[in-house]
Amino acid sequence: MINHRISHMNHQNQKSLTLNPFHKIINNRIIQKCHQNSQLYNSKNDQEQNIENDLLYKNKDNQLQNNLNGYLINEDSQEQNQDNNQIFTENQQPNNKDANRSINTQDKDEIVIKIRREIQENTMINQEYHPQKIDSINNTLSSFKSKPEPIPKPEPEPILQPEHILQPEPIPKSEPIPKPEPILPPEPILPPEPILPPEPNPQPEPNPQPETIPVPDPLEFIQRIIAETSKKRKVADEFQYYIRRFQDKLELKKHYGLTLKTSAELYKNCNAFREVRGDGNCFYTSFGFQFLSILLFEYSLDQFNDFFNKIRQIELPMKIFVPGTELKIDDKEIEKYLLDEFQRRLTKLKLIEDTNQREEQFRTEFAAYEKQSKEIDGLLYGLSTIFFRNYSNYVVDFSDAKDAVYDRENLLNWEVECNSNEVVIAELAKQLNTFVQLIFIENSNNIVIREYGINKNHKIILLIKPGHYNIGYFQQINETENRQDNSQENQVQIEIPQNINQPQHSNDINILQPVNRINELDTLKHIIAETSQNRQIQDEFKYYIRRFQDKLELRKHYGLTLKTSAELYKNCNAFREVRGDGNCFYTSFGFQFLSILLFEYSQDQFNDFFNKIRQIELPMKIFVPGTDLKIDDKELEKYLLNEFQRRMTKLKLIEDINQREEQFRTEFAAYEKQSEEIDGLLYGLSTIFFRNYSNYVVDFSDAKDAVYDRENLLNWEVECNSNEVVIAELAKQLNTFVQLIFIENSNNIVIREYGINKNHKIILLIKPGHYNIGYFQSENNLNFNDQQPQNQNEQLLLNNQQQLKEKQEYQQEEENQY
């Protein structure tokens, strides 16, 4: 390409030089430099075949060629004008001609020098952009760095006669310029690189990143240990929970088979109990659950903080070994994480303001043997067991009788009991400043009580029958109740009148005798087995009612904006999910009204309610669409109503409100049999009761004709589409205040109210197709110490609050942007 340009340039120069011989010198210099450029280009092209260099030279050559062509064109026009006047001026002013030649020579020298400078700049640019190739072409470039020789002054040419100035001769074809031999550099020439087509704006390839090795979650170690031990055993679901329901003195006596005399002696120290799972961890389950209850419900926040500060100061390990396997936790980083996680979970529980909610959440988390939700993953039991095994191993060193713990290694062995546990218990009571009663139930006629520690403000009761520990309780009762208990000690059930329809005084308490319960309840069991139990869903969604959830979870569950949630919180700031079947309205309404019966009604009001139900002879019919399953027999219906009243009356008679509340929730939520008392049928009895009562009260409504699908009221798992008429009449007949909160979308809620008695309030959350249970709690701030944080753990608590506040602000900011 360059040779072609040089040939073209020679052709143009010959045309101009025929008119002025002086141009020969100028053009020779220009052509010489162009040859030098060509020589440099050819040399580099032969050596490296570098496409980048070619592009650089191409751009520069084009620039030089354009400059040179412009110059020559300008010269042609000037020389044409000079030729027209040359004949007239040459003879008259020869001296002026010489002067002009001198001026022209000077101008051309400046132009040649300028072009030479540009060529040098071109070379410097090449060096700058190709520094790696400088060494290979130094010799070649050196030939162009020599000082340019001065242009010799041309000799005066003879004056041409006018006749010689004729039309210019035709321009002969230029001969091809021979290619100069390349100047080889001293270094050996590298083999030419392949010429690749240029890519537009090539991007550098990213460096390959090393493959990320996933770090196992430390909690997975506990999950695996539990999965390979307790979860692997085939036991009935009712025995899989790590702690079970609260049981009163009668059940305590029955469970241990005690005589009247022995039970009376036991009741002086323990009159209720809770079973724990029968594995080798039962001591740590029984002791741990009770001490954590002290932390959560008896310790102040400062005491809670101090306890964990001491644990951190001693750097308590969290080791555990599973005998006969390779499963273990014996790594300082993992142990530190597990201790932090244990403290985090307890701190979160401690920060729950409502005591009842905190108690329910704690029991649910501790008892869980599998994942039920994000919050309840079935691991609190494992963390607690590991903690108290390691703490027991730690405190033994402070005991004077530590040498008596001959099987001390078992303290850190999963599901292995230490046979010398009394030394451990004594030292735990001392170090934790508690009072521990260890009650040995040797047989039905004999118990032995041993006591450790002196601080009776924080009491732990351990019931032990060789091989197994349970949790004991002692509740104060007045003398009148105690005399009644003694007089009825041999009677498990209270006698009632034979004629159940006979009017009774409102102070009478009716507990119906269960007659042939198994056979009579089979139909209801069959209905539940063929419907809700037949669906394959995760266990966490099988419960008919689930755990209590606060305002943040309420907002998240329904996906509400900040503005909408603030409006909702004025009427409802907590909730409880119910199972998503066609009975969800009767579950939500029924659970709340039964709570009113059990916790707000007096005993007289409770009795009056069931007396009225008997007076109207409320039926208990139910039909399962698409099947032959139904309950449509008066005798069976009468029995089911009696059974429903019997169960509710038994709950009402539980003296301790917390125990009554726990028992009621557990029975109502159960989807299968957990024990003799909890058979998973209270939900079914309640649903049938409120479906029939709804069908009964509709007749009192002025808008009863608007209930166009009334037959659905008695159809199992089928919702009535005209429920508002039913709700309005239920609120009126039951003397309650019902708030029906429609959550239409994230930006809008609609609240409708029925009834006037706000002393007994029911909140129903409805999102088209499903009802949930609503709650409204007054906003009470935690009773925090006004002083500045005194220790690391208190700072951790405040940090958790700050993170929660930041999370709320972040959510608000997102919504504002939206």
Radius of gyration: 50 Å
Head-to-tail CA distance between termini: 62 Å
Instruction: Give the helix/strand class.
Output: alpha+beta
Q: What's the mean pLDDT score?
A: 76
Q: Treating each run of at least 4 consecutive H or I residues as one helix, how many helices?
A: 25
Task: Report strand order across the widest sheet.
Answer: 1-2-8-7-5-6
CATH-defined superfamily of the largest domain = Peptidase C65 Otubain, subdomain 2
Largest sheet: 6 strands, mixed
Which regions contain 5 or more consecutive residues with pLDDT less than 50? 15-19, 140-149, 157-168, 188-192, 479-518, 781-792
Tally of separate domains: 3
* Share in β-strands: 5-15%
CATH secondary-structure class of the largest domain = Mainly Alpha
CATH topology of the largest domain: 3 helical TM bundles of succinate and fumarate reductases
Q: Give the number of DSSP strands.
A: 16
CATH architecture of the largest domain: Up-down Bundle
Question: How much helicity do the residues have?
Answer: 40-55%
